[in-house]
Amino acid sequence: MDIRYKNTVDEVKITSEITREQFALLYNTDSKEETEYLYEAAREVAQKHYGKAVFLRGLIEFTNYCKNDCYYCGIRCSNKNAERYRLSEEEIMSCCTEGDKLGFKTFVLQGGEDPYYTDEKICEIVRMIKEKFPNAAVTLSIGEKSYESYKKYYEAGADRYLLRHETANEEHYSMLHPANLSGAHRKQCLRDLKEIGFQIGCGIMVGTPKQTDDNIYEDIEFMKDLQPHMIGIGPFIAHKDTPFKDEPNGSADRTVNLLAILRLIFPKVLLPATTALGTADAKGRERGILAGANVIMPNLSPTNVRGKYLLYDGKICTGEEAAECNQCLRRRVESVGYKVEDARGDHPDFIK
Ligand code: SAM
Ligand code: FES
Questions:
Q1: What is residue 81's predicted lDDT score, i.e. its pLDDT?
Q2: What is the pTM of this model?
Q3: Which residue among 40, 171, 243, 279 is least packed, with the fewest CB closer than 10 Å?
Q4: Is 4 part of a structural domain of the chain?
């Protein structure tokens, strides 16, 4: 192994600091020896804070209507081929009941930016879930809203909010989104959410069109400043009905390297091994855990709508029942020597 590589991993592991050059070195290697050294360092850091625990978050994709037109996304409003659906309150509650039976202690409500779900409706849903499952955490992932809306969701009982910033670089942001969306506003949303008291998750896709190593370094700088509780990353995967249909997919190898690097820089952060990573590589989620990831998000959406929440082509887990996904994921976690912990899995420093 290149001694420079080994020394860099050791240094980043101890200091949690990384330079632009060090980042490029760790991120781009394909050497088996080097990546194994990097992943082992990341595992050690993760185990120091979490042992061998992996937390599950039951994902309920409750609407695929969206008013936005992000160039990469399969449910963008211009995609006339997307078959649209919304779940009723009863359907959402029955997903939670199923998840509760399976031992899940977090429910993630994710959807496009769908004006049908007014603040009142969202608050009503959050209150219903918290009333029936008081020991479970509720995470929202419903896009950019006003400070006042976020505050209402928080007061209704929502605990966490996922909003990937997608890219911290404004110019790159404008290559991925239409002109009515801005990276600055998205970042402001994350700051608002944190100020209100949510545990927040930001993140990016790896390998989006025109993404450079410097862009990702800028993402790391942004995240160091933001100090999120969670960081969600997964490879970009093209969707056939989007402007990016002919763009190459992001790499699972780069994604796993980035997971490990993030673990070294953010030792206590909650880090999912995402479905997109499992789509890009059949063993992607296991590889993610072995590179320091400690969260998995099994799908709890009803089977009849799963095939419709298609952000990208080839998405896995669209045919299975929730119980099957649950079994499959627990097995996968155990296959690499880790154990699912049926707990809320809050950030260790988070006190509400
Ligand atoms: N509307 C909410 C929002 O904007 O945060 C949540 C839903 S959005 C579809 C969730 C995430 O999916 C996005 O933040 C994006 O990173 C990811 N995503 C969308 N299209 C993707 C693609 N083609 N490949 C991989 N990930 C994608
Ligand atoms: Fe809105 Fe993808 S464009 S969720």
A1: 98
A2: 0.98
A3: 171
A4: no
